[in-house]
Design brief:
By secondary structure, the protein is α+β, with helices and mostly antiparallel strands. The protein folds into 4 domains: 95 residues, no CATH class; 39 residues; 189 residues, no CATH class; 72 residues, no CATH class. Helix content is 57%, strand content 8%. Helix 3 runs antiparallel to helix 4, helix 3 packs parallel to helix 5 and helix 13 runs antiparallel to helix 14.
């Protein structure tokens, strides 16, 4: 009860902070909203503090920094969408990527001492002031006793409590949205927040981030598209992560766009192909791919850092989404529609042909077009309308993939305004399709089915015994499934023998399963 009240007042505080920064309904965009929203925005600006930044994006960024880490994450996603938002607004937001104010050095030293059980001087030769700070942690440059340069990542003090408070507010907003605007239920705001909540809270244990980085590094080595820094496991912990130091330039640095030493087209290609390859080939992907989490070395190597949020796809989801993207590349809208129906994304009362036609209306206008010629905001709006027409519900387990794909494409568009999504994706997705639908994929399916059959056959002896026990009980008159069993004072035999009856039923189901598997 008290927590709910406290969360409600934090939600009010969120609105108040946005008002004070003139970030709720910025004056620069008042003409683009309905009159009643414009009126509310005008009244709210009476309370705005004077002397704020002229850039509306920067004002919004300042408000998000004041509100907390969960809001900063939201701003980081928006900052990658220069094609959907005003470029001036996006430029103001860009400060959130890696320029969040750091916490003081004394607190960092105290957290290292608490994690290691000794002063940092006993484990490191040097430790710099913070060189980069993000929403949940900051990074220091250090030197091991053998002279090796490392990056030392330290969680913000009390970040778990602060993040929990932020997420409670977002949960309340989602609940209110579904209650007051029933149409939003189809989009699953509560499911989305639940998914985001789990991902964010996992991010606050740096041991899990180290494990995620190690897992993705295997894909990095095999694909050759990117690199993951080496992890120093013996120096890590829940609040501290120590990794190899990488010399290079972060993609959030605007100078990379004009520096002739960097091939932005090639970098953009590597960014997208690394995301697609890990997603569709390995079922795991970096789920926070903003520019601040990507570094390019002097030799052009793309290095991914900060694996606090890791996305996963099941084998079926890998295949479904690879087929969907491949269908768009090949303009096979009927197959895209079939995949949606096979996956259960579209209710069965709609027709595949109608859905294929709707997808064609989205794909044809943008196929083969350069990024600079496509308004992704219009495309997304059209897709949103189609999901409503066809009663499609948001899939919580896929929200992270969709969000990351949008984020990744935003990074590529910034690097290369002429970025061609289709040409970049085709070799990766085509290879995935050959593997999934070719001999290798079919063999994998066969072996999976054989394994399922093996596990089912292991249950056969128990199933046979259950059937025999049921038959014997029936012959002895211990089982009576008649409608009047147990009435008029007669012995309620079924109540005594229910376990046997259900065991027999389970045995029949098991045998049916064996038959079904044998049909593959």
């Amino acid at each position: 009860m008290f927590r709910t009240i406290a969360t409600f007042f934090r939600m009010l505080r969120t609105g108040w902070v946005l008002v004070r920064h003139d970030a709720l309904v910025p004056a620069e965009y008042a003409g683009a909203v309905p009159w009643f929203v414009r009126l509310f925005g005008g009244l709210s600006r009476i309370f705005a503090i004077r002397g704020r930044a002229e850039n509306p994006g920067e004002r919004f960024a300042n408000a998000l920094e004041k509100l907390g880490p969960a809001y900063i994450k939201f701003g980081q996603i928006l900052s990658t969408r220069g094609d959907m938002l005003d470029p001036i607004f996006v430029k103001g937001l860009s400060r959130l990527k890696d320029k969040v104010p750091p916490f003081e050095m004394k607190k960092a030293e105290a957290m290292l001492a608490a994690e290691w059980g000794m002063p940092w001087q006993d484990r490191l030769a040097t430790l710099s002031e913070p060189i980069a700070a993000a929403s949940v942690a900051q990074v220091h440059k250090g030197t091991l006793t053998d002279g090796t340069k490392v990056a030392v990542k330290i969680l913000r003090p009390n970040i778990r409590e602060a993040m929990r408070r932020d997420m409670n507010v977002l949960h309340m907003v989602a609940n209110l949205a579904e209650f007051f605007v029933p149409d939003t239920k189809r989009l699953g705001p509560k499911s989305f927040v639940n998914t985001a909540d789990r991902a964010v809270m996992l991010e606050l244990d740096l041991r899990l981030e180290a494990a995620a980085a190690s897992e993705v590094s295997e894909a990095a080595i095999e694909t050759g598209f990117f690199k993951v820094p080496e992890i120093y496991w013996d120096l890590g912990g829940k609040d501290v992560l120590v990794i190899e130091w990488i010399d290079g330039k972060a993609l959030s640095d605007d100078t990379i766009l004009t520096d002739p030493n960097y091939d932005c087209q090639d970098i953009g290609r590597k960014v997208m192909q690394s995301f697609l390859a890990t997603s569709f080939d390995y079922g795991v992907f970096h789920a926070d791919m903003h520019e601040g989490n990507m570094i390019v070395t002097d030799d052009g190597t793309l290095v991914l850092i900060d694996f606090g949020i890791l996305g996963r796809l099941s084998p079926k989801e890998q295949r479904f989404h690879a087929e969907i993207l491949y269908g768009f590349i090949k303009r096979d809208y009927l197959r895209i529609a079939e995949v949606h129906f096979e996956a259960g994304y579209v209710p069965a009362h709609h027709t595949i042909e109608d859905f294929a036609s709707a997808l064609r209306s989205v794909g044809e206008p943008i196929f083969g077009r350069l990024a600079s010629d496509v308004s992704m905001s219009r495309v997304l709006m059209q897709l949103f309308e189609i999901t409503e027409i066809f009663d499609m519900e948001m899939q919580p387990q896929l929200i992270m993939l969709q969000k990351t794909m949008m984020q990744t494409e935003g990074v590529c568009r910034r690097l290369d305004p002429k970025f061609d999504m289709w040409a970049t994706a085709e070799p990766i997705v085509a290879a995935s399709m050959r593997r999934e639908l070719g001999i290798e994929g079919r063999l994998g399916d066969f072996l999976d089915n054989m394994d399922r059959a093996r596990r089912t056959l292991e249950k056969l002896p128990d199933a046979t015994e259950n059937i025999a026990a049921l038959a014997q009980a029936w012959a002895n008159g211990d089982v009576d499934l008649s409608k009047n069993s147990g009435l008029n004072g007669s012995s309620p035999k079924i109540s005594v023998t229910k376990p046997i009856a259900w065991a027999g039923f389970g045995a029949l189901v098991t045998l049916g399963g064996i038959w079904a598997v044998s049909q593959f």
